[in-house]
Specification:
alpha/beta, Rossmann fold, Arc Repressor Mutant, subunit A, 2 domains, five-stranded parallel sheet, four-stranded antiparallel sheet, 8 helices, globular
Length: 227
């Protein structure tokens, strides 16, 4: 999962980042309203952890703009302000949850998993063909047998299984799996290499799904076509 932390307090921002990275999330950070606005203008995320009180603006205005644009990111408000008016306004603007400070990092992780499950209609994982992927347990099963994947291979497959049969641009895929700084790189050889290995492992495991290249666009996860 790709997460954006919008939090101006450096120590808390770093603690949150380390914990979420430990749980295999791709994490980006913003310390101000302006930084968050720039990130959101150029990139997409699965979940946004949004502080209300930022040094140069109100985080609720970011939330308001996201919903106005029809963006689908899950948003969890994290704020020391516990006034009922702030909580009500945030939820009415479309926030998925509200977590007052101080909070335990374990609770933050649980809230993130909870809103992710709700966005999947209550399902714990993703299934396509004979492949099942559980993003919480970080496991993949093919035809009832576990499939051993490296961290990036798992994240790539997870991204595709959330978008079955959709053409995925290689740049968006790289940003989701490696982070927003990927746009500073000159080539996408690292993406090609990981997809090649993932394709091979799926074939060897007898998966009835495959990642196909769409020339000039990117890739698409589809069912295997039987001759």
């Amino acid at each position: 999962m790709k997460i954006l932390i919008v939090e101006d307090e450096p120590s808390l921002r770093e603690l949150m980042c380390r914990e979420l990275q430990r749980e295999n999330h791709v994490v980006e950070r913003a310390a101000t309203y302006r930084e968050a606005d720039e990130k959101l203008a150029g990139y997409s995320y699965d979940c946004i952890l949004l502080d209300i009180m930022l040094p140069d603006g109100n985080g609720l205005r970011l939330l308001e703009e996201l919903k106005r644009q029809g963006r689908r990111e899950n948003v969890i408000i994290i704020s020391a302000r516990d006034a009922i008016e702030d909580k009500v306004e945030g939820l009415e603007l479309g926030a998925d949850d509200y977590l007052p400070k101080p909070f335990h990092l374990m609770e933050l992780s649980a809230r993130i998993r909870s809103v992710a499950r709700r966005s999947r209609g209550g399902e714990r994982g993703f299934r396509m063909g004979n492949v099942y992927l559980d993003p919480e347990k970080q496991v993949v099963v093919v035809a009832g047998e576990p499939l051993n994947l490296l961290k990036k291979e798992f994240n790539i497959l997870s991204y595709f299984m959330q978008r079955p049969n959709h053409v995925v641009d290689k740049t968006l895929l790289a940003e989701a799996v490696w982070g927003d700084h990927v746009d500073q790189l000159d080539t996408f050889h690292f993406v090609y290499g990981q997809i090649k290995n993932l394709r091979r492992k799926l074939i060897e495991a007898g998966a009835d799904i495959e990642i196909k290249a769409v020339y000039g666009f990117g890739y698409r996860l589809t069912m295997v076509e039987n001759d």
